[in-house]
Amino acid sequence: NAGVTQTPKFRILKIGQSMTLQCAQDMNHNYMYWYRQDPGMGLKLIYYSVGAGITDKGEVPNGYNVSRSTTEDFPLRLELAAPSQTSVYFCASRPQGAVMETQYFGPGTRLLVL
Amino acid sequence: GDSVTQMEGPVTLSEEAFLTINCTYTATGYPSLFWYVQYPGEGLQLLLKATKADDKGSNKGFEATYRKETTSFHLEKGSVQVSDSAVYFCALSERTGNQFYFGTGTSLTVIP
User: Fold this and answer.
1) Residue A98's pLDDT is what?
2) In this complex, do B42 and A107 lie within 8 Å of one another by their Cβ atoms?
3) Residue A11 predicted with pLDDT over 90
4) I want to staple B31 with a disulfide (CB 3.0 to 4.6 A). Which of A23, A73, B92, B109 is the partner?
5) Distance between CA B89 and CA B5 in Å, rounded?
6) How far apart are the C-alpha atoms of A67 and A52, rounded to whole Å?
7) Kind of pairing between the strands at A109-113 and A10-13
8) How many CA atoms does the CB half-sphere of A103 hold within 13 Å?
9) Could you tell me which residues are beta bridge partners of residue B108?
10) Tens digit of each residue's pLDDT (9 = 90 or more) over A61-109
11) Whole-angstrom Cα distance, residue B21 to residue B105?
12) Is A99 on the interface with B (CB under 8 A)?
């Protein structure tokens, strides 16, 4: 298993540009998450999904959109990039089930908006 | 709402020193508690977990005990190594929910 994969690893965007951060998992997990991690801060939940076709907002959803057409993929869309979106973005997944289950994290995408 | 509060860093220790990183939580239900570790340039990895009061999670010499009476889950290690240098995050998840709540992270540097 590749686990959770994210692309790209690093990207520089100009203000107002748009892009999609890709996330895929091959573990057949129902739950998928997008977090952002600002310097010196903890992770903030942007959006999550409990299964294909179902998404919901997290703590900091403004400026982002998501879709979940398949179990495997959970892309994050930035429509009009702003400097405040400079951050490291982590995708995670976990299986539905017992409380002991935990999230598997991808390696992250570092985004710089100038 | 649910939240996690961690001691502020950064923390710098000499090799073989004792480590404690404090973590307290606020939760409406009966959460599971976790410690994650993030090594430079990598994603978060689960270090240990505890799912009910008085449980002790342990891994790689690290320990943390779920204390419901003090709503705490402090991370400890008796003798740190240079390879333990990383950022440590405390987190909780409600059993009836599907979200995780993370603390702000504590950066640990161990010097030889």
Assistant:
1) 64
2) yes
3) yes
4) B92
5) 10
6) 9
7) parallel
8) 32
9) B11, B86
10) 999 999 999 999 999 999 899 999 999 999 999 888 766 577 889 989 9
11) 10
12) yes
Closest CA in chain B for residue A37:
B104
| Subunit contact A99:B93, Cβ cutoff 8 A | yes
Place of tokens 């299986």: A95
Assign B84 to helix, strand or coil: helix
In whole angstroms, how large is the CA radius of gyration of chain B? 13
Q: How far apart are CA A20 and CA A40, in angstroms?
A: 25
Q: B60: pLDDT confidence band, cut at 50, 70 and 90? A: very high
Between chain A and chain B, the number of residue pairs with CB atoms below 8 A apart is 49
Residue that the structure tokens 């100038």 belong to: A114
Strand B19-21's sheet: what is its strand order?
B19-21, B75-77, B62-65, B56-59
**CA torsion angle A6 B39 A89 B89 (round to 10):** 130
Helix/strand/coil for A88: strand
Cα nearest neighbour of A58 on chain B: B99
Q: Cβ separation of A42 and B100 shorter than 8 Å?
A: no
Structural tokens at position A41: 């801060």
Say yes or no: A95 contacts chain B, CB-CB below 8 A: no
